Amino acid sequence: LVSRKKKSEDTVITVNGERIGEGTPSFIFGPCAVESQEQVSKVAEAIGGKGLRLIRGGAYKPRTSPYDFQGLGLEGLKMLKAAAEQYNLAVVTEIVTPSHLEDALPYLDVVQVGARNMQNFELLKAVGQINKPVLLKRGMAATIDEFINAAEYIIASGNDQIILCERGIRTYEKATRNTLDISAVPILKQETHLPVFVDVTHSTGRRDLLLPAAKAAIAIGADGVMAEVHPDPAVALSDAAQQMNLQQFDEYYDSLMKFMKQY
Ligand code: PEP
Ligand code: MN
């Protein structure tokens, strides 16, 4: 059902007035994790100030170590929702288990399924039964075919509002956190009718690569870019090395807008 052969025209997903997949790149910015009301409000103000319509932030964090910050859960999601409402933003947030979905749904606009859960088939079926868009991230060791099959689980359960997100794959290369598989973008665009995003933060894991990676994503035809922004990345409870501070975010967004005007 996600195949281009089944449906030749691009799927466009409308969230809070943003038309994802219609041609002009969309942007999802926000902190890695919700840490406090003040933290998310500052980021929401910066995003809203640019006229953007989406904010991300993790409340249920899938962390590699059980001793790392696990997120504030529903309380954190409520903080994100409050900040988003103040600046007219839609909330993109990760859900890690079907059992959280019902409680979390009123506070989110787009459900993220993270890389670690790309083949959590019960979660895929559960988000397939809601009527809100799903941002599905590629598993860190998933082939493109497996990624497409994960999306197929969601659409087969009834939800065709799916955004695919390339976020880097695990390779032998250690210079970046993951290896951004940039050619996955045009392949996914050819094989499916779904919008394709690139997460430049988790793919590169390096602040200095966020801009070139986003330019590459846009140039190769991505429908949008995701990147993490935090008021004070040095004290962030997760992903301190790659989040942008608010001034870096300003410069980053300006540079991207200039780059896009060349097209
Ligand atoms: C995230 O976007 O917050 C995240 C954990 O990313 P990924 O699932 O791609 O690792
Ligand atoms: Mn992160």
Automatic annotation (TrEMBL):
The keyword Transferase applies. One of its GO terms (biological process) is L-phenylalanine biosynthetic process. The keyword Transferase applies. The lineage of its organism: Bacteria, Bacillati, Bacillota, Bacilli, Bacillales. It comes from Planococcus massiliensis. GO terms for cellular component: cytoplasm. Keywords: Transferase. GO terms for molecular function: aldehyde-lyase activity; chorismate mutase activity; transferase activity. This is Phospho-2-dehydro-3-deoxyheptonate aldolase.
